[in-house]
Design brief:
- This protein has seven helices and twelve strands.
- By secondary structure, it is of the alpha+beta class.
- Strand 7 and strand 8 form a beta hairpin.
- It is globular and about 45 Å long.
- Helix content is 25%, strand content 30%.
- It has a seven-stranded antiparallel sheet with strand order 3-2-4-1-10-9-11. Strands 5-6-7-8-12 form a five-stranded antiparallel sheet, with helices on one face.
Length: 242
């Protein structure tokens, strides 16, 4: 499993989101509080952000643990954005490491995060998902992770209908069909630079934690990054920040 973070609001330096909070994403990479399937998020880190006047997101990814990547501190204080999504990764056994499997995933103007897993992914659900994809969504797959294949399911619907919320709902439905009875935990976050949509769901088990904080902008996170008023998102319900 992973820890995810998304922000939409006034422009802020990335360091204020990723590094400075008392329970920042960096802290969650080595000391998460609410993970059930792993102890650390040491298998990579990634962040995507949107710049004014540019439709497609910029992206930085590394296979290093976030705490060990000195590059983050070099640029996080200089880069500002009003729309950011980021994740620290704990690779599911059998899925594989490497940059291609490191989130966020992007295609065009859309960026995507997943926290969770599909149990037994490579022995059935992977093939079932691929069989249902159109050419563009299939061709967008670069890695071997269940997370990226969920993104491909999302992308397949989004490319046809251009609706983030509907595409997330369709992703849950199609993932449920493809899992063939295997346990699946799906906490999904997606953005097009203008809004962020998120949902958490479980098929056999408890949905992964996902919280929302609304203040000077909206934050969505696997774990609260600071003390304050955080709302626990209801399983199966897509929420949107605009």
């Amino acid at each position: 499993m992973c820890r995810v973070l998304a922000y939409l609001g006034p422009q802020r330096p990335l360091k204020e989101l990723l590094l400075e909070p008392s329970h920042s994403l960096e802290v969650q990479s080595y000391a998460p509080k609410e993970m059930e399937e792993a102890l650390l998020n040491a298998d990579g880190f990634g962040v995507a952000w949107y710049a004014e006047g540019v439709a497609e997101p910029a992206r930085y990814r590394t296979v290093l643990p976030m705490w060990a990547d000195e590059n983050v501190r070099d640029f996080a204080g200089q880069v500002r954005s009003g729309c950011v999504i980021a994740a620290v990764r704990s690779a599911t056994p059998g899925i594989g490491h490497g940059l291609a499997n490191t989130q966020p995933f992007v295609h065009g103007r859309v960026s995507f995060l997943h926290n969770g897993f599909i149990r037994g992914f490579r022995t059935g659900p992977m093939r079932a998902i691929r069989a249902r994809l159109g050419d563009e969504a299939y061709g967008a797959i670069r890695g071997t992770s269940d997370s990226e294949h969920l993104f491909a399911l999302f992308l397949d619907h989004y490319l046809a209908h251009s609706d983030l919320e509907q595409a997330l709902e369709a992703t849950l439905e199609r993932a449920d069909e493809a899992r063939a009875g295997e346990r699946a935990l799906l906490s999904l976050v997606v953005s097009d630079g203008k809004k962020i949509c998120a949902v958490t769901q479980a098929f056999d088990g408890h949905a992964p934690t996902l919280y929302r904080n609304v203040g000077a902008g909206t934050l969505i996170a696997s774990e609260p990054i600071f003390e304050g008023e955080w709302e626990t998102l209801e399983a199966g319900k897509v929420v949107t920040a605009t």
